[in-house]
Amino acid sequence: NAGVTQTPKFQVLKTGQSMTLQCAQDMNHEYMSWYRQDPGMGLRLIHYSVGAGITDQGEVPNGYNVSRSTTEDFPLRLLSAAPSQTSVYFCASTPAGWNSPLHFGNGTRLTVT
Amino acid sequence: AQSVTQLDSHVSVSEGTPVLLRCNYSSSYSPSLFWYVQHPNKGLQLLLKYTSAATLVKGINGFEAEFKKSETSFHLTKPSAHMSDAAEYFCVVSEPAGGSYIPTFGRGTSLIVHP
Q1: Do A90 and B45 touch (CB under 8 A)?
Q2: Which chain A residue has the Cα nearest residue B40?
Q3: Which residues of B touch A34 (CB under 8 A)?
Q4: Which terminus of chain B has fewer CB atoms gathered within 10 Å of its CB, N or C?
């Protein structure tokens, strides 16, 4: 059972470039979400999805897009990378709602120069 | 509205001594509370969760936490620290939000274990 898989593990971008961070889960979870982790800030929610075809913004959505065409996949797109987007990104999923624990991927470490 | 405060950014203990990581929360409902652990260069792993059953919750690796509504606290403890416990720990609060799911993370406590 793979759980939540994120690719790539590391990425370096130049300012203005775009890219997609991939996230896939094989647990048939309805809820999926993207977080960014910065030193001393904990995890901040970027976007989330409560099911295929439904997405919504979290705390820090600017500069990021998401889509949810299938239950399994929830890619995160950086439209025009900025140095402020240098961070570690985590994808998470959960089978149900607010009282269920999150299952996390191992993260993508992104550096924007 | 929900919020969570981890009272210490760093906690340093010696191996074999007790661990206490403090977490206070605020919630308009009866929340669910979680503790996650993150080892270096890894994702977060669930340690334990409270969801309105027993107030003393036992988790993995000998950790436990006690839900105290009167004090709005959910402190994490372990009787005897091990070197492998050195990691970042996150307290998380979650409450019903009309079909959405937006848990709030604390800023984390780094646990340092000295030999």
Answers
A1: no
A2: A106
A3: none
A4: C
DSSP A29-60: -SEEEEEEEETTTEEEEEEEEEETTEEEE-SS
Q: Which residue, among A87, A11, A77, A106, has the nearest Cα to B42 in the 3D structure?
A: A106
Query: Residue A58 has which token pair?
Result: 């979290």
B85 Cα to chain A: minimum distance (Å): 18
The two structure tokens encoding residue B10: 């760093």
Chain position carrying tokens 């999923």: A93
Q: Decide: A22 and A9 in contact? Cβ < 8 Å.
A: no
Written as tens digits, the pLDDT of chain A (113 aa) is: 679 999 999 999 999 999 999 999 999 999 999 999 998 888 999 999 999 999 999 999 999 999 999 999 999 999 999 999 999 999 999 987 777 899 999 999 999 99
Q: Are the CB atoms for A29 and A93 separated by under 8 Å?
A: yes
Which pLDDT score is estimated for A96? 72
Contact flag A90-B43 (C-beta cutoff 8 Å): yes
Q: Do A42 and B107 touch (CB under 8 A)?
A: yes
Note whether B44 contacts A90, CB cutoff 8 Å: yes
- Yes or no: say if A71 and A30 are a contact pair by the CB < 8 Å rule: yes
Pick B43's closest partner by Cβ from A40, A101, A104. A104
The conformational region for residue B83 under phi > 0 = left, psi -120 to 50 = alpha, else beta, is: alpha
